[in-house]
Amino acid sequence: MAGDEERRLVLAPLTREAFAPFGEVVDAASACERYPINDGLTQRHHDLGRVDCDAGGGVAALSLFRAQPVDDSFRLRSMERHPLASQAFINIAAARYAVVVAPPGELHEDAIKGFLAAPGQSVNYLRGTWHHFLLVLDAPADFVVVDRVGPGRNCDEQALRTPLRLVLPS
Fold this sequence. Notes:
2% of the residues lie in helices and 47% in strands. It has one helix spanning 16-19, and strands at residues 7-10, 12-13, 23-26, 33-37, 42-46, 59-67, 76-81, 87-91, 97-102, 113-117, 122-125, 130-131, 135-136, 141-149, 156-167. Strand 4 (33-37) and strand 5 (42-46) form a beta hairpin.
């Protein structure tokens, strides 16, 4: 690979429909059952995503990830997947971030898609979905992560043949 070779990945808006092959968008705007609880002081947006963590004796765990922002010089050089579980990133900082994914199975670089998550949007990757690690765009941001802990290898990483440069929509 030539030293300056790279591909551009234009980010599309993150929508429930466009993201469905890779997982679930978790936000208050998603179509779901809604009803009041707690004496009407809270609106429950019910069943926005499914935690899939019990394969091979695993259990769901909550973690806090504090992500540092990337700038225009950042290039994506790898992808990862979790073959034993889903993995949810709950955006608690109201931050914009990039979501980069590819379908489960063998990683095909031409199938990589990028989305721009708006403040208030979160994602839950389906088991085996290839994805890049957190790519916060503006400032450090916190995410609650729901994923699997337990026996077995649950993270595969693969280097990209050609680095990707994120391009924000204009």
